Amino acid sequence: MFNLCESVFSRYLPKKLYHTIWLLRPFSIILLYILIGPVVNLPTTNPAAQVTFLPIVIMLLETSVYIAVMLMFKQQAYYFQSQLQAQKAELQMLKMQSNPHFLFNTLNLIASEVTLEPHKAKALIYDLSDLLRQTIELTKHQFVALEQELKLAELYLVLQQKRFADRLTFDLDCQSE
Question: Where would I find the Signal transduction histidine kinase internal region domain in this sequence (predicted)?
């Protein structure tokens, strides 16, 4: 019943109040008890011992514990979400810092090869465009398969190998599994 009510009310609530929809549950329990509580009256053997307040106290304590636990869960979720956003921002900043240097160096290499060896410069342009295309494609996804990451690393290393000629060699040894 509560889940149905929460889904119905969540449609009509403004976005600012959507994250507080869970408060509907304890307040609806209190409202139901206030409406139904007076109808149910347990017979007591001793009329002087009126213990009708005890269920109300228990219900209020349960509701308070529920609200406290839910607030802790919400706070943990916000904390972990903010940590994740901070790590994503840091990673994005690192990517933005490293890309221009690599791009400038590669473009300088292409510019120097255009007059000396035009075919090599053309191959470098194609390699650079493949690398940039692959990088743009991979940034659209939060998680990347290892195969795609290795292909990107290989494209990068091929460009670096052409830049440094005999000073850089590499060998990728990764099993297909």
Answer: 89-168
